[in-house]
Task: inverse folding
């Protein structure tokens, strides 16, 4: 296994958009379980209310530079979630994929080597086409799978942790989701949702509740024990790149 400290599999949690409401809700749950988090940020909307009309999270305040630096000090990480949250295409790649990295790094005064596709995986061809020009080391999508230890870093899957899936599946929340598969594969689970709240999801297809997040983390820790590396995606990517360079 390529994982450090004798660990046998890896667990990460990510939140798209980076809503400031994470601070009063998900962040204390992370602290309680000792699990670092990660936010995917729209580059042009740091520290301002989200402006993506039609989004379930439109109008919600987004974390500021100062709040992000405070989270960084607790082990959290960030990725670039495009410039405007428009669907990425090969036509808008120069702005949504390339320029967005420069804008976000300037806004945060931090390196941002991971791109997170906004919307859905339809944006993948455009993201992939411009990843090299932007010097991204990894791309996060929402393929629901465990990433193998030798996974293509420019095509990483994430596991939706939601109250219920859209039709025709209606799959309900499962705190054990993919954990045993990750153990058998020696793989890397990257969970994803947006902004869990007490007793409710902002959208059942896009979020779990805060109580479900707590149950997910408790299950990862209980089943994973000492074998699971609880890590933020930038740290995992950096580790794998160093490992593969040897
Ligand atoms: Zn998004």
Result:
């Amino acid at each position: 296994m390529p994982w450090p400290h004798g660990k046998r599999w890896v667990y990460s949690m990510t939140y798209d958009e980076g809503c400031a409401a994470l601070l009063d809700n998900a962040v204390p749950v992370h602290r309680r379980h000792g699990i670092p988090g990660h936010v995917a940020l729209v580059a042009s909307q740091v520290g301002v209310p989200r402006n993506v009309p039609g989004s379930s999270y439109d109008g919600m305040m987004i974390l500021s530079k100062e709040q992000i630096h405070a989270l960084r000090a607790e082990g959290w990480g960030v990725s670039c979630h495009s410039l405007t949250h428009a669907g990425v295409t090969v036509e808008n790649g120069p702005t949504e994929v390339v320029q967005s990295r420069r804008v976000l790094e300037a806004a945060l005064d931090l390196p941002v080597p991971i791109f997170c596709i906004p919307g859905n995986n339809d944006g993948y061809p455009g993201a992939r086409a411009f990843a090299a020009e932007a010097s991204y080391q990894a791309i996060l999508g929402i393929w629901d799978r465990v990433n193998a230890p030798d996974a293509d870093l420019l095509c990483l899957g994430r596991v939706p942790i939601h109250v219920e899936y859209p039709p025709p599946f209606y799959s309900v929340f499962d705190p054990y989701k993919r954990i045993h598969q990750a153990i058998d594969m020696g793989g890397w689970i990257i969970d994803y949702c947006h902004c869990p709240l007490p007793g409710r999801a902002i959208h059942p297809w896009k979020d779990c509740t805060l109580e479900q997040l707590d149950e997910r983390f408790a299950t990862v820790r209980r089943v994973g024990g000492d074998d699971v590396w609880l890590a933020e995606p930038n740290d995992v990517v950096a580790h794998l790149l160093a490992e593969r360079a040897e």
User: Anything to note?
Assistant: Residues 16-17, 81, 85, 118 surround zinc ion (CB under 6 Å). The longest strand covers residues 9-16. The mean pLDDT is 97. The domain at 4-245 is CATH 3.20.20.370 (TIM Barrel).
